[in-house]
């Protein structure tokens, strides 16, 4: 490409050599070498610099069609041209090399920072439920005859809660890795969103003991064609995020509707809300608000965004600090005139 560029410009310049003169041609060829230096590696640029010097000498500097140069002025011009072209090529390559090195250093620093963030999050989020499970099992084994049925029930409940928490974190990590790898593809089928919503609320019942989840099913909502697993993951993470990061007695509202081929899901609460300056970052991986309570890896909302976009949808957040938050998900869907499907 660099050789072709030199030859093309040389041919065009040769057509107008009587008008522009060979000194202007030298400047044009030098410009082409400079452009090549910004586009290509050092070897093709050096080749183009050498080729342009040969072309300039043979076809443009009088006497033409040989390598003799009659005047000392033209000898000096040709020598300066060749030197400047080589220096320009080398310096431009060095600058590009330096820029690449700085960029690699920034990416490496960013990777280390991300690794530390992941490690800090996982060190607590995975070790805590594991420690709870091991501790409860050890207590049961060491005091099996001394523990009352009520004590055993409490320990079994702790194991169940810790296991669910551990499973949730592992699922989030696997989901995020699959999203980033692009291996998750939606599988569409017909779903009753009201039924799916009640199912997700039931899954979060243990975490919602100090909260109130309000969902009034939309009786006019038709069946929609969507990936039910994706939608369940979106709704689950939005509800879990609200339960985890709002104070006790907070009310969480869920609204679903379908208008003109667009499914709308809204999950809102009357909790503390988000600071205005944080709203643009809440969907970033491993991002957690300063001062939030311990718990979570900061993956939930980024997974919600990933699954929503996999369904060609969009998610937005409206929030004023101190007055609560409202997440809105919109997804284009097909709708059915049937409100339910009979079991076959």
From TrEMBL:
The keyword NAD does not apply. Keywords: ATP-binding, Kinase, Membrane, Nucleotide-binding, Phosphoprotein, Transferase, Transmembrane, Transmembrane helix, Two-component regulatory system. It holds the Pfam family HisKA. Gene3D superfamilies: 1.10.287.130, Backbone structure of the membrane domain of e. Coli histidine kinase receptor kdpd (1.20.120.620), Histidine kinase-like ATPase, C-terminal domain (3.30.565.10). It comes from the Bacteria. It is found in: Membrane. Its main location: membrane. Its EC number is 2.7.13.3. Residues 121-335 form the Histidine kinase domain. GO terms for molecular function: ATP binding; phosphorelay sensor kinase activity. The chain crosses the membrane at residues 20-40, 45-63, 75-93. This is histidine kinase.
